Amino acid sequence: MFEAAIDGQVVYVSADGRYILGGPLIDAKTQVNLTETRIAVINAIPWDRLPCASR
Q: Which helix (H) or strand (E) is 34 found in, with range?
């Protein structure tokens, strides 16, 4: 399975591209929402790219 980011959403795609799964991917052992974690990483803005006012 592969991960794809489309319009700010994460979907999972089978290797042959036939199947697409939308919605959260949950680690059953830890009960962590892996999709939510990936979206936070994908949408993060690096600090060095933020405009800062000069002093």
A: helix 34-43
In whole angstroms, how far apart are CA 46 and each of 4, 33, 50?
A: 21, 23, 7
C-alpha span between 38 and 35 (Å, rounded): 5
Question: Percent of the chain scored above 70 by pLDDT?
Answer: 95
Q: Which of 42, 38, 4, 40 is nearest to 22 (CA)?
A: 4
| Cα gap 7→9, rounded to integer Å | 6
pTM: 0.66
